[in-house]
Amino acid sequence: MGQGSNSSTLRQYNERVVISAVRKAGVASKPDLARSIGLTLQSLTRIVDALEEKGLLEKSGRRSVGIGQPSNLYQIKADGLFSVGIKLGRQNIEYVLSDFAGQVIDKASHRYKEPTPEQLIDSLSSGIEVMLGKLSPAQRQRFVGVGIAMPWFLGNWAAQHEMAPDIAQQWVDIDFANELEQRLPYSIFFENDCSAAAAAELYFGQIKAANNFLYIYIDTFVGGGLVLNGNLERGVHSNAANLATLPVPQSRLDSQSNTSGWDTLVNRASIATLLRHLQFHQVNIDNIADLADIIDDNRALVHDWMQDCAEGVVFCIMSCVSFLDLEKVVIDSQLPTFLLIELISMIKRRLAAMPTSNLFVPQIEKGSLGEDAIAIGGAILPLYSHFAPDRTVLLKGGVPDRLQQK
Predict the structure, then answer these.
(1) Alpha carbon of 52 to those of 49, 63, 73, 99, 173: distances in Å?
(2) Is pLDDT larger for residue 239 or for residue 266?
(3) SS (H, E, C) 77-132
(4) In the chain, what are the helix, strand and coil shares in percent, each to the nearest 5?
(5) Phi and psi dihedrals of 280, rounded to 5?
(6) CA distance 90 to 156
(7) Summary mean pLDDT of the chain
(8) pLDDT tens column, 321-330
């Protein structure tokens, strides 16, 4: 690699660092950025001016400090780039159309049950076109791609009673990522669903001063993400913080039949378990979106699940902080907000009662993106394929090699 190439690579990296710093600060002056990043003011000025010329940063007022000329303030230019983020869930697809500032311009969802790969590919194709129809022709020129946040091991849905075995086998047999890339005329990026949600919280969330945190997302199943030193830790197989299989004590719910003495977190802290518990007690519900219709008459059953879930999550947190030194644990969910707040309160009370000798128990906080977290995480993927300072994060764009069919 020649000297010119090295210089170009360094410039691109510094552009990524500047964009990340501006995003975290909200607004910042050139002197602010130079100090925080460790560049000379002269070098920083060249980078900011170039990003402004590219339409990625814009001026946002001026600030006077002491004697001298006021400093221009800069912020992310929201219409600098656009992307579509998709949450490929077990009961629905969620779409968001996002700008470069992480603002959701539009969103939509489509519910299904036991989808085949071909059905989902058709749905994705039409859903993306609907989202792109919201952009003007000029905005379409700044569209950079589609990010899909999805669970790995799709064929395992049958084991969780989410899908018939024959349909699950279709998911095992197909190279889903390759099929999508062949069908869709856009750049496609993939990431594990809960890792993508953790990245969304890191880059676009409202959690303050969180550079080292465990992220727990309670969805149809439970999953997680890990942020260390301000970067998403993906792991060797893009599966770091896969919390679903974490061993936990056996559930106390009468709807759970496990008698081994140990269980996994997915069977205690997941919406699928809540729905099965309600169905076990003859409550007619098969989707979390219908919870509001039945909760008033079945509050005790929901409370039983919440207690069982909280105990499982506490065990998970105590296990993780035994080998991870974390500032926070961020918990988010598709649950209604009032239930999530109550669940987090239960978790905090139980943690406070635990013996914590030789451990630093992290703060527990509610995530700030809620049901949109995973889809927003998907929208980040194409944006940060070009503009993430950590080149190991969100850039490889693809289902892990060992999950691909050979």
Answers:
(1) 5, 18, 12, 16, 47
(2) 266
(3) CHHHCEEEEEEECCCEEEEEEEECCCCEEEEEEEECCCCCHHHHHHHHHHHHHHHH
(4) 45, 20, 35
(5) -60, -30
(6) 11
(7) 85
(8) 988 889 999 9
* 82 strand-pairing partners: 99, 143
pLDDT at 246 over 90: yes
Question: Between helices 271-280 and 299-321, what is the axis angle to 10°?
Answer: 150
> Are residues 293 and 283 in contact, defined by beta-carbon separation less than 8 angstroms?
no
pTM as predicted: 0.84
Strands 328-333 and 213-218: parallel
Rounded CA separation 275/354 (Å) = 29
CA 374 and chain centroid, separation:
4
Query: How many residues are present in the chain?
Result: 406
> Would you call 217 helix, strand, or coil by DSSP?
strand
Do 246 and 194 contact (CB within 8 A), yes or no? no
- The most confident of 45-49, 180-184, 209-213, by mean pLDDT: 45-49
- Which 3 state secondary structure label does DSSP give 224? strand
> For 396-401, which contacts have Cβ atoms below 8 Å and span 24 or more sequence positions?
396/238, 397/188, 397/189, 397/190, 397/191, 398/177, 398/189, 398/190, 399/152, 399/176, 399/177, 399/190, 400/152, 400/237, 400/238, 400/239
Q: What is the phi/psi pair of residue 274, to 5°?
A: -60, -45
Q: Which long-range contacts (CB under 8 A, 24 or more apart) does 65-69 make?
A: none
Strands 328-333 and 188-192: unpaired
Residues 6+ apart with CB under 8 A from 68: none
